[in-house]
Amino acid sequence: MADGGEITRLLRAWSRGDGDALEALIPLVYEELRRLAAGQMRAENPGHTLSPTGLVHESFLKLVEQKHSPDWQDRKHFFVVASKAMRQLLVDHARRKHARKRDPGAPAEWPGQYQMPGAPWDVIDLDRALDRLEQNEPRMAKAVELRFFGGLNLDEIATTMDVSAPTISRELRLAEAWLAHEIRGDPQD
Amino acid sequence: MARAEATVRPGLRPAAGQRELFLDRECADPELRRQVTELLAESDAGASEFLQALVTQDSVALAAPALEDRAGETIGSYRIERELGRGGMGDVFLARRVDQEFDKLVAVKIVRRGPDLSEVLRRFRQERQILARLEHPNIARLLDGGSTADGLPYLVMEYVEGLPITEYCDSRGASIEDRCRSMLPVCDALLHAHRNLVVHRDLKPSNILVTSEGVPKLLDFGIAKLLEPEQAAGDQTATVFHRPLTPDYASPEQLLGRPITTATDVYLLGGVLFQLLTGRKPHQITGYTPEEIDRAVCHTPIPKPSQVKPEARRKLEGDLDNIVLRATHAEPEQRYASVEQMAGDLERYLAHRPVLARPDSLRYRAGKWVRRSPVTAAALALVLLSITAGVAGTLYQARRAERRFQQVRNLAKSFVFDVHDQIATLPGATQARKTIVSTALTYLENLSKEAGGDADVTRELAAAYLKIGAVQGDPVSSNLGDPVGAMQSYRNAETLLAPLNSRGDLEADRLLMSVYTRMSALQRSKADAAAAIESIRLARRCADQILARLPGDSETLAAVVDLDLSLSRSLRASGDPKGAGVAAHSAMAAAEKLSAGQPNDATLLAGLADAVSNLGVLQAQSGDLDSAAATFRHLVEIRERMARDQPGNVVYQRQLMIAYGHVGDVLGFRAGEHLGDFAGAAEVLGKAVAIAEWLARQDPSDEKARFDLASAKLRFGTVLLEQGHAPDGLAQLEEADRLNAPLLRKNASSTLYLANSIVLKTTIAEALVGLGRSNDAVRLARQAVADARAGIAPRLATPSQVLHSQLGLAIVLARAHRADEAGQVAGSLGAALAGDAQLLRTGWLRAYFYSELGGIYQQLGQSGAARTWFTKSREAWGRIGGGPLLSARRDSEIRRLDAALDNRRP
């Protein structure tokens, strides 16, 4: 498991402009998130609804806060990394799910939970659309990532990105509308 | 779209109010303006929720144990081979039975999340028989179920390899007629299930798989019901969003938490037909937010297939449109009355004959029904009656004999009770409930005629009558207020069972015992004590018959405890203390036997304590104080053990306090008969006070706890006075009065609080006069008499409180050396007692009053009067007999009186 000191060291290296540090960081956080997600699902905790927000915050506590009193810069950078890792984790998982879906003799689906069944799109569609947004509007894409995969609220996103909250709010609304449209397409299509 | 996007990006920057201006300036092109407006609208509503739903949906899926976790694991008799899929509620695995030679593949569903997993298990045990009996070539059978080593419920089902019916039809390029034809076996399977009173609740293409041989199989029958969360009455929204339903197909009543009937399956089937015909899911839902689902399911009618698929309009328009619309009507009672009717229409369509379904202009007011609340009971009854008709119809088919058992069982259990209970809380449902019951009765009567002595059928019929009787008039639960009908149902059950009785048919004997027990409850509620006692005796005879064959059978012993206890109470109330005592002993013996078998079972121990307590009260009331003391000490032992096992259990603590109180009363509390053992009484009453104080601290707002504490302190204080500890006794009594006073103020009409207040005043007055505070004492004692006369005398036939307070006043006056007043009060009290010896109900009370009056006159120096009362007291004591303790007390009283009489002899 990743060591808290190592994480903090990498976070600081990254904040000083060391791009390799980010490459090293994401897998560490990814692994921790995966472990936490699996841990939350053990039988002793059935019925528990897992949320990305909870996972990201928990991983922060586990990886950073435990060993070091983090300064806000560490915190800020950690959430940027964790949001990316969370996104990757969900997308990887959804891909595996797709692979299974193509399994011949695939079964009847379980009577699904309310919000889930039959939704024709999933996080992979969001990932692809987000990639496209990133090419033209990297700041918007980052805000979306922090919001939906990191679970940060508007003020936290604004602080993390050093942009005013009203600006972030406007950009998010636009980005959300654009993404939703990208994913669902035009109803008349 | 690219232009619109480009325009919109800067376009969101102006504040909302400036939008129109901005649009006017930027979007001269009307088409561009339309697209931009659309985008803007979308950015305001739903986009964020939509994205959030995508993330949440996959996060939930992520929250699953790793794939390889279960492979190779053995669950029950099945070894997991591989995962087949997973969903919101659990995972599905392919498994193989390990303990059989022939290879059988099954699908094992492990419920991972749900409302309450133990509840799922419980329901499964309840339903498994019904579900396992659903044998039909087009239904995948439920084979088994249980819980895994890690405590998760699992269900084992026939494994079906196939494609969802829609994909199957698409892959074969099926024509519209073929698609309709493919629905017919599905309808047949559903009809079979409905006749067995099982509703599917979650029909959708993925639950209707077609095998490579072209055989459709319905999966997951009744599973949705097992997984449905318990619903609190009136609470709809809280649970709707955790139901195992599929919003793309769901019916309005499912979303609204209304009763689910066969009409729900008709709706769902209509939705599947819609998708088969059009390739579209019946509800168009995009974001899966609660609001959107509500809008799509409850407020948007499923469109005509011909409108959705204009290229096939010629084929769809007319009959098929009408069939789909009829099946998916928002109002259940406007749909096909049964799946059979719907199948009939499909067949008629295929045969080019006219269909029953007609265009219905009303359906476009779909919102109307869902806003109306609640669904009318009469309409519901119609739906329900159509089920009964179906059941009755099958009865006369060839498979009759084999099916009947199940039919009756289902009727009584599922139909009358599930359905009845479901509508019982609806306002205005009484008429519908009565209709259900009378329909069921007609049906049962017909079956009775045909039973022909078949023991299985007879027992089931009797059980159904028993249950219907409870619905008609069970005094302890919600009933239809028809005690006469209830009694008739019980009598019918009795008549059916009588020929089977005492022939070694244990089930019949058990049923008959229940019949008589219910009868007695009904008779007791009508104050027909003699009939109630007779019914209990009959029930008791059945119990004896069972116990003769199964000695120690715990179920029967438990019934015996209850029967004998109620027999004992009934006999006591009807003036047969001897019979009551016999029954009380018998109840205690049965309870002891039962508890000895499972000494750690708290329920059995509590039952034993009840039986012991009942016996003790009976003994104390009949004046057998020796036995009562022993019985109550035994009660204390049991209650102490219960309280020790569960120290935080408030009820157990209170019961222990009451047990101490019983012992204390019998040993030495003056207000009743006692053995004169004040030291022993003080010991246990001290413990009672300690518990009462603890209980009052647990919940300072609990009135009962404060009343308990006041009563305990009254007893403890009085006994301390008897022992000569006047200051300590007074402290307890005054504390009791401080607790009681606010209770009385708040409940001025409470006889209980008033009686306590009067006794407290009198007793405190006696303590005060002993401490030399004569004026206060006399004032209080007079107040007590006045209160008793004003408050108690008008309310109670035998106002012993008045006599007690008068005696107390006379004692206080005499000790305060106010001879004239004392003589006056004693004189009037004595005159009253002499005038009516029955004013004091027991010999003990007479002996006590006479002796106290003698003491007063002795103190006043009137030796003649003292002599008279002492002599009367001695006579009264002479008539009191009992065990050694009571006899010893009597002898010591007589010795004391003799000494007093000797002293006063001239």
Strand and helix layout:
The complex is a heterodimer of chains A (189) and B (906).
Chain A: H1 4-15, H2 19-40, H3 52-65, H4 72-101, H5 123-136, H6 138-148, H7 154-161, H8 165-184
Helix pairs in contact in A: 1-2, 1-3, 1-4, 2-3, 2-4, 3-4, 4-6, 5-6, 5-8, 6-7, 6-8, 7-8
Chain B: H1 2-11, H2 19-26, H3 30-44, H4 47-62, E1 74-75, E2 78-86, E3 90-97, E4 105-111, H5 117-132, E5 142-147, E6 153-158, E7 163-164, H6 165-171, H7 176-195, E8 208-210, E9 216-218, H8 223-227, H9 237-240, H10 252-256, H11 262-278, H12 290-298, H13 305-308, H14 313-316, H15 319-327, H16 339-350, H17 366-371, H18 377-395, H19 400-424, H20 430-451, H21 455-473, H22 483-497, H23 506-525, H24 529-549, H25 554-573, H26 577-597, H27 602-621, H28 625-645, H29 650-668, H30 678-698, H31 703-722, H32 726-746, H33 751-770, H34 774-792, H35 800-815, H36 819-835, H37 843-859, H38 863-878, H39 884-903
Antiparallel strand pairs in B: 1-2, 2-3, 3-4, 4-6, 5-6, 7-8, 8-9
Helix pairs in contact in B: 1-3, 7-11, 7-16, 11-15, 15-16, 18-19, 18-20, 19-20, 19-21, 20-21, 21-22, 21-23, 22-23, 23-24, 24-25, 25-26, 25-27, 26-27, 27-28, 28-29, 29-30, 30-31, 31-32, 31-33, 32-33, 33-34, 33-35, 34-35, 35-36, 35-37, 36-37, 37-38, 38-39
Give keywords.
heterodimer, A: 189 residues, mainly alpha, Arc Repressor Mutant, subunit A, 8 helices, B: 906 residues, Phosphorylase Kinase, domain 1, Transferase(Phosphotransferase), domain 1, 7 domains, 6-stranded antiparallel beta sheet, 3-stranded antiparallel beta sheet, 39 helices
Entry summary:
The complex is a heterodimer of chains A (189) and B (906). Chain A is built from 8 helices and no strands.
Describe the structure.
The complex is a heterodimer of chains A (189) and B (906). Chain A is mainly alpha-helical. Helices cover 69% and strands 0% of the residues of chain A. Chain A has helices spanning 4-15, 19-40, 52-65, 72-101, 123-136, 138-148, 154-161, 165-184. In chain A, helix 1 packs across helix 3 (52-65) and helix 2 crosses helix 3 (52-65). The longest helix of chain A is centred in the middle third of the chain and has 30 residues, at 72-101. Chain B folds into seven domains: 2-44; 75-158, Phosphorylase Kinase, domain 1, CATH 3.30.200.20; 163-354, Transferase(Phosphotransferase) domain 1 (Transferase(Phosphotransferase), domain 1, Orthogonal Bundle); 405-551; 653-746, no CATH class; 748-817, Methane Monooxygenase Hydroxylase, Chain G, domain 1; 837-906. Chain B is 66% helix and 5% strand. In chain B, strand 8 and strand 9 (216-218) form a beta hairpin. The radius of gyration of chain B is 39 Å and the shape is elongated. In chain B, 50% of the residues are buried. Residues 1-22, 64-68, 229-242 and 361-406 of chain B have low confidence and may be disordered. The chains are: A mainly alpha (189), B mainly alpha (906).
